[in-house]
Amino acid sequence: MSVTVSSIIVGVLFASLPLFPFISWAMGRWYQSRLMNALSEKEKLEGGSLQNENHLSTASSTVLMSAQASALLHVSICVGPSMGQIFFMWFKSLVGGRLRSYEVVLEYGRREVLFRLREQAKALGCTSIHNVRLETSVISFAQNQDSKRSSVEFLAFATGLIH
Predict the structure, then answer these.
(1) Percentage of the chain with pLDDT > 70?
(2) What is residue 142's predicted lDDT score, i.e. its pLDDT?
(3) Closest by CA position to 81, among listed 93, 70, 69, 64
(4) In the beta sheet, which residues pair with residue 155?
């Protein structure tokens, strides 16, 4: 009885099929942790989030100020979970509880879009950022909404001022 290489490969792939969600989940978590660590490093180099004296929130007291110029800043990104994470989120939705994998995707998307907004402001020479607006929307890949595959789009808008 002769065993060929292709039959061994097919056998290994068929035997590992039940492990696919676990492998995909593990690889997705590993990749997301790499992205989060890289983003944390970039934020450390650039000085953290948008909360300092040059980046005011809309809740700050309004004062009259003059500016030489202004610019509309806008950034858009799409992020999504891995297939394994989608599988475990589906399972978790059956039994209830927090969807930690989805929270990681949302946290990364928010932080990344705000970081890119600040990079855009710096590239345009803006000295302050005002009226930051962050929007999220789920993009589903099925017309009938039965598909569990989706990604999340993050849109960030702000006004950049050049003093």
Answers:
(1) 80
(2) 59
(3) 93
(4) 76, 135
